[in-house]
Amino acid sequence: MRTNEIFMAIKTDFPEVRQEEETGAVIIPKESLLKITRYLKNHRLAFDNLHCITAIDRTGRVELAYTLYSISEHHGITLKIYLTAGEENVASLAELWKSANWLEREVYDLFGVIFLNHPDLRRILNPYDWKGHPLRKSYSHPEVSIKPRL
Description:
Layout: H1 3-13, E1 18-19, E2 26-27, H2 33-42, E3 49-58, E4 61-70, E5 75-84, E6 89-91, H3 100-111, E7 114-116
Parallel strand pairs: 2-5, 6-7
Antiparallel strand pairs: 1-2, 3-4, 4-5
């Protein structure tokens, strides 16, 4: 199924979604994330694989992108959510796809997005006592000095 056909199937049941012109990604409100992803997993579209979650720090907002794939139907889609500054939280998808567990932890660790009701939201790449989220534009990189070994 083509991206536009998938979008139209989603739009039929969720009129609040829109499609990004340049990429074809489906833009959804953060409040609808669980409802729409549950629909996509259980609907005839059969999105049984959450392949990737990533984030982009844009000025004034964080953009989340979810890549879903249907192994049985051989099609994929990207969902996007825009989180306004100061409100970087969204529902966790860990109850729907096990892969969400570590993917959400990575986005939390690097961007500081809080995934509500996540079963184990802690750092996954940086040490647990690391201060800040290193892929945020506002992140202040610590001074690092490398001393040669003799």
